[in-house]
């Protein structure tokens, strides 16, 4: 299978991996034809990339970033409980986090168990989902990435569970922000951006009043937009004033945001998202955490079409766990001429390197 930008897929191409809806039900199965109408509908539903059938790549496997059953159950709980919070805020009622904290804790336990059993670099590109509300999936994705990074940093089980809760609830304050602002396709006005920035403080206020959630969970919501150089919000605190968990969540929050399709811009590929993080390493983000994160995620996921130096091009066939930036590539052409496919393990053939990725989207907007 090959990863393809939806805006580059030709009509009647066949799907190589299912596409799910918000409820975890398969909208399109393997082998489904991507007609012009289907492609248009997928674009409307926020899909940027799909896996398609492609000659010579039939045996390339792309594993789900998380067990589909866990994702389905988690999204259901997140949606129901976040909407309950939204309703309480709309009615100006006190938000009762104590009544739902156990269900959030259960999600973290399930996801943590799945992450601890994962032996491969994590890639959520494989989980192709048509969603109506971005925040639910973003909250889960940030939890998965945070736990993966926390695991790589050597956090113990108790620390990971606390980190997971902070990640899952980091954006709870956005349930008070108007959907018109969150989903606006045009550039936000200064007033609208100020309104969005309030979600950190509102999230802190909601969570700190809970008797069953730790104050650390509240501070993850409060601090995840703070930056090392003091340029973040809401308090412009710096470096050591920011809790390490908030630094972790801040990094993966940006990564998931830029590698997910948004109403105002298309998704970046993982290596592009990491380039963005590295551009802020040492000033905005903790350099060691960014470096560790780059070794935790699949920078070049299986199925991605790439060009190598020396005029060769092909498809990523496998990720090397010990060196995600040096995957195995199935070379399928040389200087534009098809050849009998052969494998090149970039972790062993160090003179070969990826020069560019062929799966691209138009219009790149970077905002960290």
From TrEMBL:
User: Where is each HD-GYP domain found?
Assistant: 113-309
Q: Which InterPro entries match?
A: HD/PDEase_dom, HD_GYP_dom, HDIG_dom
Q: Which PROSITE patterns match?
A: HD_GYP (PS51832)
Enumerate the Gene3D superfamilies for this protein.
Hypothetical protein af1432
List the CDD domains hit by this protein, alphabetically: HDc
Q: Name one Pfam family in it.
A: HD_5
The record's section on SMART domains has: HDc
**Protein name as annotated:** HDIG domain-containing protein
- Phylogenetic lineage: Bacteria, Bacillati, Bacillota, Bacilli, Bacillales
């Amino acid at each position: 299978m090959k990863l393809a930008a939806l805006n580059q897929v030709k009509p009647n191409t066949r799907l190589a991996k299912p596409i799910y809806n918000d409820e975890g039900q398969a909208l399109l199965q393997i082998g489904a034809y991507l007609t012009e109408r289907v492609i248009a509908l997928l674009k409307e539903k926020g899909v940027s990339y799909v896996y398609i059938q492609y000659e010579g790549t039939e045996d390339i496997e792309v594993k789900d970033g998380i067990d589909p059953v866990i994702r389905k159950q988690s999204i259901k709980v997140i949606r129901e409980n976040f909407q309950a919070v939204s309703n309480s805020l709309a009615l100006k009622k006190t938000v009762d986090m104590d009544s739902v904290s156990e269900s959030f804790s259960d999600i973290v336990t399930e996801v943590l168990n799945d992450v601890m059993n994962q032996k491969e670099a994590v890639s959520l590109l494989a989980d192709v989902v048509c969603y109506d509300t971005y925040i639910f999936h973003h909250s889960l994705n940030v939890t998965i990435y945070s736990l993966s990074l926390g695991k790589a940093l050597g956090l113990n089980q108790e620390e990971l569970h606390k980190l997971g809760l902070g990640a899952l609830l980091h954006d709870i304050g956005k349930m008070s922000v108007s959907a018109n602002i969150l989903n606006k396709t045009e550039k936000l006005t200064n007033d609208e951006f100020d309104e969005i920035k309030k979600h950190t403080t509102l999230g802190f206020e909601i969570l700190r009043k809970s008797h069953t959630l730790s104050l650390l969970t509240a501070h993850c919501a409060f601090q995840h937009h703070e930056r090392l150089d003091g340029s973040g919000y809401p308090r412009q605190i710096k470096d050591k004033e920011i809790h390490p968990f908030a630094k972790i969540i801040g990094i993966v929050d940006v990564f998931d945001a830029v590698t997910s399709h948004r109403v105002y811009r298309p998704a970046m590929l993982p290596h592009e998202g990491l380039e963005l993080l590295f551009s802020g390493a040492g000033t905005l983000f903790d350099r060691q955490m960014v470096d560790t994160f780059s070794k935790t995620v699949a920078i070049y996921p299986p199925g991605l079409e790439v060009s190598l130096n020396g005029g060769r091009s092909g498809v990523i066939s496998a990720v090397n766990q010990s060196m995600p930036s040096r995957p195995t590539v199935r070379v399928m052409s040389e200087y534009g001429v098809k050849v009998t496919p052969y494998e090149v393990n970039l972790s062993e053939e160090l003179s070969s390197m990826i020069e560019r990725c062929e799966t691209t989207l138009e219009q790149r907007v970077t905002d960290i």
